[in-house]
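Okay, any thoughts on this one?
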Amino acid sequence: MAELRQRGSSSNDMSVAWLLAAAAVLLQMSVNGRYGYFRDELYYLALSRHLAWGYVDLAPMAPLVLRMSTALFGESLHAIRLLPALALGAEILITGLITRELGGKRFAVLLACLSVFMAPVILGNATRFSMNPFEPLFWMGSIYFLLAAINRNRPQLLLWCGLLIGLGLENKHSTAFFLISLVIALLATPERRWFGSRYLWMAAGIIILLALPNLIWQYRHGFPTWVDLSNVKKIHKNVELPPLAFLKQQIMMLLPISVIVWLAGFGFLLFHREGSRYRVLGATYVIFLVIMMALHGKDYYLAPIYPMLFAAGGVFWQKFIESHARLRWAKVALPVLIALLGVVAFPLVLPILPPDRIGPYMEALGIGVSRTETHMSSALPQHFADEFGWPEMVAQVAQVYNSMPADERAKTAILAGNYGSAGAIDFFGPRYGLPASISAHQNYYYWGFRQYTGESIIMLNWNLDDAQSWCRNVVEGPKIDFPYTMSWEHYNILICHGLQAPMAEAWPQIKVWD
């Protein structure tokens, strides 16, 4: 009977997580078709038509998932963004499960799950298809099973950790840093005892087996992902924040008020008498944070690790309020305050406002347009700016292409300078009779220049001087100049007549991996 009562209580505790998860999915699906396709989504759609065990700039899982998703649901915005929305709901549920494993009851589950729901970086990641919405499911899923193994003393559950981390590596390579942090944390805490269990080593074997196909692909192609990351470092593409600025961004991207939850959770895991049993989680966070700051990673790379800190924070506040009867009002005040400020932040990451109102709204909140890349410039944050202008750009290219004589069109290539423009041509172009694009950017480089000889090329994202250095004759076409797009999407379409070098010779020289 006691077990049945406990199980029923746990079920009631999780009901609030289910409600918040459902609300998050409904919110995403109600707004995620308001703007347009994101630059990376167009690239993912192209990758999904060229399935492989690896790509220059990402692991193999996301294009495969998108291929299956489009086969089932189609390629509309709502269709390709359904799985990211569901992933957000699943992340909230996993947060609730972790909270329970840490000793949390209904209030703790509410506070933790609500904090995840309202975190702008987490909510924003779920608005579009990419690797990011799925990453926390693998990381936090493995944390849940680690906690379950600790609480139940069942090392067999570590096999699930191996499965999830292995799949996580096939989703996004940054999972390797999470794995390194977790292993060091295990060694540095009493949980090092698990290294004496055969199940941990079996879990390690599962990770290796799941990661092996991509490792083999990387080896056979000369480790292009490493080359790509090295190039990013050499050209200082990403904004490199000093430690204090990096920590400030963590607070801002998670909703400033929520710092009282996740920071309390961090303290609970490292210093609280009851939470210290789970010190391995706090240690994992510290190590991962240090690694990201040392490598000058983008601030949002830490987003997938925070649900466990929110969970611990929910447990801390539950216990603190229970031991201070005069603070019972906080059981209402804390969730209400987080919810209200979270709703205020919605337009910063969700496509709710008309685009011309986003800037004034940010100004009213005293927020500037943040940058994660050094050459980033636009009137809107990039996560919005990269959803505008693609259909219009393709329409202008089609006008240029269809104005050519038929015999010239037959040998004219459309050469895009970046994968966004290439993906847009491939996705929107067929309605205008355009051929598939070619590009030497990222994984498009591997797909080559096909049958084109370089006699006639429509060049996108190229400046005039560079084009003239490669072509015998260059004609300037119409200007791509749509509002709200990123600065590098404002350029003149160029028509190149005759490459000065054979296409096969030029192709490796115009390759761009960054």
In short: The chain has two domains: 13-361, 390-509. The radius of gyration is 25 Å. The chain is about 60% helix and 5% strand.
